[in-house]
Amino acid sequence: MFLSFILLAVLWHETETWGLKNGILHNSIWLEQAAGVYHRESRKGKYQLTLKEAKVLCDYEGGHLAKYKQLESAQRIGFHVCAAGWLAGGKVGYPIVKPGANCGHGKTGVIDYGYRVNKSELWDAYCYNPHAKQCGGVLTDPERIIKSPNYPDEYEHQQICYWHIRLKYKQRIHLRFLEFDVEDDPSCLSDYLEVYDSYDDMLGFVGRFCGNKLPSDIISTGNVMTLKFLSDSSVTAKGFQLLYKVIIIPSAPDSTEKIEDTTHQ
Ligand SMILES: *[C@@H]1O[C@H](CO)[C@@H](O)[C@H](O)[C@H]1NC(C)=O
């Protein structure tokens, strides 16, 4: 009882960080990695994966399709995604924590679509990988270097990395790029690094970077920041290396202040 009270308090707090993106209600990156279970959609977008493709995607990242029980455990600690995905054995379902009319029909728990007869149906995927992913993670150190996978060697194809920097309340984050070399294309559609001045990759978009020009320094408005790196399956490059450092604000920060650099490259 007491434990569930704590969990509710945490969830209540987390609700502020949830948002709708491409028709999917996501919660924080941190919760998305709950219990080693995480949600993946095709790079082509929502509901584009057959069972076979979903398996390949999870295996590629060093894990496998999540079992129903694993998704259930993740749901119990707050994993919530409003998008149905393949599970091991050809089941389809999704985890709902926060009841809503548009998602899960007001129910909570794992919404179960059962074993699908047609394995060519198109859904997302739920992968299970209890070991740290190859790239990304939750970073709480006051200062750290972040490198693209394999750096200084070339990064691999089809990488998806999230770094979530989470410092103490009232601290801010100063990002400085040390080296930058990511496959160049005019709108950075192939490979890119995105920076978000927020807890997730929906709010506070700062910029999308590719090419080999060093992006300017970025300073967060709050104590959290999210970096997302994606590479496609063609050209790769050396990658990037950046340093973040805590900035300690002596007085309360002005909430209306804007980030210094909002340029896209
Ligand atoms: C199986 O699902 C796919 C994708 O939705 C569809 O194109 C195909 O016609 C379905 N096959 C059968 C036998 O219903």
TrEMBL record:
InterPro entries: C-type_lectin-like/link_sf, CTDL_fold, CUB_dom, Link_dom, Sperma_CUB_dom_sf, Spermadhesin-Link_domain
GO terms of biological process kind: cell adhesion; negative regulation of inflammatory response
Keywords attached to this entry: Cell adhesion, Disulfide bond, Hydrolase, Signal
Location of the Link domain: 36-129
Residue span, CUB domain: 135-247
Disulfide bridges in this chain: C58-C127, C82-C103
Secretion signal span: 1-17
SUPFAM superfamilies found in the cross-reference section: C-type lectin-like, Spermadhesin, CUB domain
A GO cellular component annotation in the UniProt record: extracellular space
GO molecular function: hyaluronic acid binding; hydrolase activity
Keyword Hydrolase among record annotations: yes
One Pfam family hit: Xlink
Domain of life: Eukaryota
Subunit note: Interacts (via Link domain) with inter-alpha-inhibitor (I-alpha-I) component bikunin. Interacts with ITIH2/HC2; this interaction is required for transesterification of the HC to hyaluronan. Interacts (via Link and CUB domains) with ITIH1. Chondroitin sulfate may be required for the stability of the complex. Interacts (via Link domain) with various C-X-C and C-C chemokines including PF4, CXCL8, CXCL11, CXCL12, CCL2, CCL7, CCL19, CCL21, and CCL27; this interaction interferes with chemokine binding to glycosaminoglycans.
Name recorded for this polypeptide: Tumor necrosis factor-inducible gene 6 protein
Organism of provenance: Scyliorhinus torazame (Cloudy catshark)
Lineage, top ranks: Eukaryota, Metazoa, Chordata, Craniata, Vertebrata
